[in-house]
Specification:
Layout lengths: L6 H14 L3 H10 L7 H10 L3 H8 L10 H9 L6
Helix pairs in contact: 1-3, 1-5, 4-5
């Protein structure tokens, strides 16, 4: 069995991702560039508040081989997990 985000952590992240209607890699790029035309202050605040912790992102990054079995919020965690190492 693998470690995954608890339901109370997945729901807010899933809602944010659903509202953006973008590919996870594109959202990752937005987070890296902080494009103010596409990333509102509220959206940034929501990501800061609801994204998994650094330790959780590291654990999610280790689940790359189980990507298809993960929830959307966990998949996004896998995509952004390399950011936790910077």
């Amino acid at each position: 069995m693998y470690v995954c985000l608890c339901l109370c952590a997945c729901i807010p992240v899933a809602l944010i991702l659903g509202s953006m209607r973008m590919d996870f890699n594109d959202i990752r790029k937005l987070l890296l560039t902080m494009d103010e035309e596409k990333m509102t202050e509220l959206l940034v605040e929501q990501f800061v508040k609801y994204l998994p912790s650094k330790d959780e992102l590291i654990q999610l990054g280790a689940l790359k081989d189980k990507y298809d079995e993960l929830s959307d919020a966990e998949k996004f965690g896998v995509v952004v997990s390399p950011l936790s190492q910077t």
